[in-house]
Design a protein that fits this description.
By secondary structure, this protein is α+β, with helices and mostly antiparallel strands. It is built from 17 helices and 18 strands.
């Protein structure tokens, strides 16, 4: 048969992962653990065997909702659910799977994380109420899916694309040449909006259901919309710390790990992804760790947080904190130490990146790194490396986690009524007030002369609040 661009079209749509593949010949299925070339696609089109492909380890260029049972009725349900959710109708492609089933395919530009594609499938299952055992998700890194336009190994029938409305075969090989992909941002918006609706519908039952222990948690903390509004993410690099704060508050009020995990999931799916640097899988794993940590380590005090506290709660710093902070060898070291101590006192730990430190304090990345190393060598802070993850097709270093000597024990006004307190949002404009306020609150001008630079001392004198 003539090529007519068919192989290029397969390469641009289905053949994202080529390091291994499967072929179906009669009743035999063979897995081949080496890369395939265009000849394999050509043999698939000629009907010599049916080619099956996998997704990449982390990403895919397409997804298939495989309707094994239910025929046309269920296929229409899947297509209609995708359209209702906001997937453009002309970007939904349906093909015959070979017997009585159908494949509903979506293609992405340039690609999509496997977790995001699976999340879209799960939302379709929720919208339709279909059985995931009968309507399955493909491909994955370990499960391949048979491609269209080949010949079914058992029936001998050609697996044509079909009209998405009538499901009648389109007996034209070149139909694949006109496939159009969905932009990543479109999928992101669809998933974000429908996750909100999904979690809003399930929220009440999920949080306060019978989970076997600690049933005393009261509903008002869970359904306090004003409280969760105050926790909305407004900048990158704060997602982990905010979830720690929510977990602490819920545990203080009696929630168990299962309830906390479900609350954090609901919170996560309501956030703008612009402010989240981790993949969905990483966030969900983090949520599970936070929830079980809170149940084991955070005491139940029946503390009722104010709905208006928000993410930027009051910073309370003890004299011992100030004595550690002032040990920094440079002005940059002391300021960065103060930033980390402030986060630790609010959240128990500081989950921030060099980039965030640089943007907040106006330092270069090199200055931030040198200052952090200085503070670690002086035992002012401890660092836990964040490792790396894939983001937008490249390897990105995750935010580090920083701890202070007493592991960031949360301080209340009642415990330290005479401690230094700061109630404003931390940014470049307000940080000087925080820094010089702390220095002059605890230390005399004579003591400050031992550590601060001349410009810093002049600023302390200008503010005239020392001693």
């Amino acid at each position: 048969m003539e090529n007519n661009g068919l192989i290029d079209s397969f390469n641009n749509t289905y053949c994202f992962c080529r390091k291994h593949y499967r072929i179906m010949i009669g009743t035999t299925v063979k897995t081949i653990d080496h890369p395939f070339g265009d000849k394999v696609i050509e043999s698939h089109l000629e009907g010599n065997y049916a080619l099956c492909v996998y997704s990449g380890d982390k990403c895919t260029r397409f997804m298939t909702i495989d309707v094994d049972q239910g025929g046309k009725k269920v296929t229409h349900q899947v297509v209609n659910a995708l359209i209702e959710m906001g997937i453009p109708e002309d970007r939904i492609y349906v093909s015959i799977s070979g017997k009585k089933g159908y494949h509903v395919d979506l293609f992405f530009s340039p690609w999509i994380y496997n977790e995001k594609a699976k999340n879209l499938y799960e939302l379709v299952m929720w919208r339709t109420g279909l059985d995931p055992k009968k309507v399955e998700f493909f491909p994955t890194p370990t499960q391949a899916i048979k491609l269209p336009l080949g010949v079914h190994s058992k029936t001998g029938s050609r697996c044509w694309f079909v009209d998405r409305n009538t499901l009648e075969p389109i007996e034209d090989f070149e139909y694949i040449n006109n496939i159009e992909a969905i932009e990543f941002e479109t999928v992101n918006n669809v998933v974000r909006e429908w996750n909100k609706k999904h979690w809003n519908e399930l929220y009440a039952d999920m949080i306060c259901e019978d989970t076997g222990h600690d049933k005393t948690v009261q509903k008002e903390i869970v359904f306090d919309d004003e409280y969760y509004e105050g926790m909305q993410l407004v900048m990158p690099g704060t997602r982990h710390d905010t979830m720690i704060r929510i977990a602490r508050d819920l545990r203080n009020y009696g929630a168990n790990a299962i309830q906390i995990e479900k609350a954090l999931r609901g919170f996560y799916y309501r956030q703008d992804p612009l402010y989240i640097n981790s993949s969905e899988r990483e966030v969900l794993e983090d949520i599970e760790d936070i929830a079980w940590w809170a149940e084991k380590r955070v005491p139940v005090t029946h503390y009722r947080p104010s709905p208006n506290e928000g993410v930027q709660r009051k910073i309370i710093l003890k004299k011992e904190d100030a004595e550690k902070i002032i040990l920094g060898s440079t002005s940059a070291s002391r300021r960065i130490a103060l930033l980390i101590y402030s986060f630790c006192r609010m959240f128990g730990a500081a989950h921030i990146s060099y980039d965030y430190i640089s943007r907040t304090l106006g330092y270069s990345m090199a200055t931030a790194k040198n200052a952090i190393n200085d503070l670690i060598s002086l035992r002012v802070i401890n660092r836990q490396s964040g490792g790396c993850h894939y983001q937008n097709g490249r390897l990105v270093r995750k935010s580090n986690t920083y701890f202070i000597p007493d592991n960031g024990k949360r301080i209340t006004e009642d415990e330290c009524p005479d401690a230094f307190m700061f109630e404003r949002h931390i940014d470049q404009e307000t940080f000087d007030d925080l820094y010089y306020g702390l220095m002059t609150f605890y230390f005399s001008p004579e003591y400050l002369e031992r550590y601060l630079t001349k410009p810093e001392l002049a600023e302390c004198k200008r503010r005239d609040v020392g001693g």
